[in-house]
Amino acid sequence: MKSILIQQKVFKAISGTYPDNVTEEKIVEDDEIAYSSIILNLSDTVIRKVGTQNSAKELWKKLEELYTETSLPTKLFLLEKFFKYKLDVSKNIDKNINEFTKLIQDIKLTGDKSIDDYSPIVLLNAIPDTYNDVKSAIKYDRDSVNLKTVINGLKSKEIDLKANKPSQNNNEVNMVRGRTKNRNSKYKFRRHKNNDEVYMICDVNAVNSSVNINEWLVDSGCTFHMTPFKEVLTNYKSGKLGSVSMANEKLCDVHGYGDVCLSFENGFKLTLKNVRHVPDLCHNLMSCAALEEDGLEVMYLMVSTRPDIAYAVSCLSRFMSNAGTLHWEALKWLLRYLIKSENTGIRFSKCSEGVKLIGYVDSNYANDRDSRRSTTSYVFTLCGACISWKSQLQNIVALSTTEAEYIATTEAFKEAIWPKGILTEIGFLKNNVTGFSDSQSSIQLCKNPVFHDRTKHIEVRHHFIRDIVNKGVINLEKISSEENPADMGTKSFPIEKFQKCLNLLKLS
């Protein structure tokens, strides 16, 4: 952390060693940068412990009190752990050395600088039986020993053990002598002339590790496309391009890159650019992040068959590269919706009372916690069947529930003019559009042409509703919230209320 602050040239905010000619504004700016840099590198648990500090210097001091405590019990605990340290044979040497070095560093923070004199001896005594020859060579062949010598000896021995490790895949064959089912002692077996084959049963411990060259696994974790097969790459360019870190902490070298053309059964072809050649891989890997950069997204349901899930798919696709538990739960909700609504649709029936275009409108005041904007929801029906619907946030912040309902009514009946024009032109619609709202206040504002204090601040375009109501284009009437199906577009409902709204719109 100190190195980061020094690199950003703001460590003076911690030490307080500013020249006399530095302005107060510069000191405050450095303090803000240092404070934010420290906070961003702390875990949530630590932030809760130090969150009350108001400056970088106070924050640094608090962290020192928490994690550089030099009390006697702490020192005794670390020393006991140090002198009893043993190498863990289940881990490699690098991980063991990292743990041992961290333990030494913690002891030094308590003020004990003499620990370096004992560290080679402690590490030498921590060596397991597998490394006894290293221990003997260092112990008896040298006049003095240091920590670097012990570490180098352990690493060399580890390399030798890996190189000389015997293969675990031993094949065993059980040779048996068989006989026929015939128990007659005079029976003679005749071998057929063409029967020269020998059948062998072999007990093999190894697993078939063959990989399908045409099989590609979509991986949300890899940064780019990778393949172990050089023969599938076109425009291949070889070279040392670094290494790839795998999930098991293994580093695999990249030997080159090229393009791969994939053909599908429906005739569609997909070209993957800059596919890395990694011979040590076990499978072909296709990167989700790289596909997104190329503009390729799997949205067949959204585009072709179920446009009602467009918003949910759009939200979930933002987290494809790094999805968490909450995103997985949201995806399960979406899949659950698709399954349950598979047989649900709009029911159209004969217009027994003539063609009627009816609209329902509602809003939810300031329901968005981030922007505090309200939600507009409206539904239009023709002969009782749903033909148009919408639910979205308003583009401005309303100051009251009446204003939110007023804006929602305007947006809804702007939509009504288009179907009314078409139906009137072809001679189907004889009556005006009937609109229903559950807000008496917004209805009165729509019918009142006088501008007063309650409406002066509302944008001019939202007063369009007054003009069409005054001309008689629509008839605006009051309806109870229980009978307003547009209410389901503003909030979540219990299943009974939600089902009632669906029945009002002939959705079954």
From TrEMBL:
| Transmembrane annotation, as ranges | none
Q: Which residues form the Retrovirus-related Pol polyprotein from transposon TNT 1-94-like beta-barrel domain?
A: 216-295
Family matches, as InterPro entries: PolX-like_BBD
Q: Name one Pfam family in it.
A: Retrotran_gag_2
Q: Superkingdom of this entry's organism?
A: Eukaryota
What name goes with this protein?
Retrovirus-related Pol polyprotein from transposon TNT 1-94
Annotated organism of origin = Sesamum latifolium
Q: What is the lineage of its organism?
A: Eukaryota, Viridiplantae, Streptophyta, Embryophyta, Tracheophyta
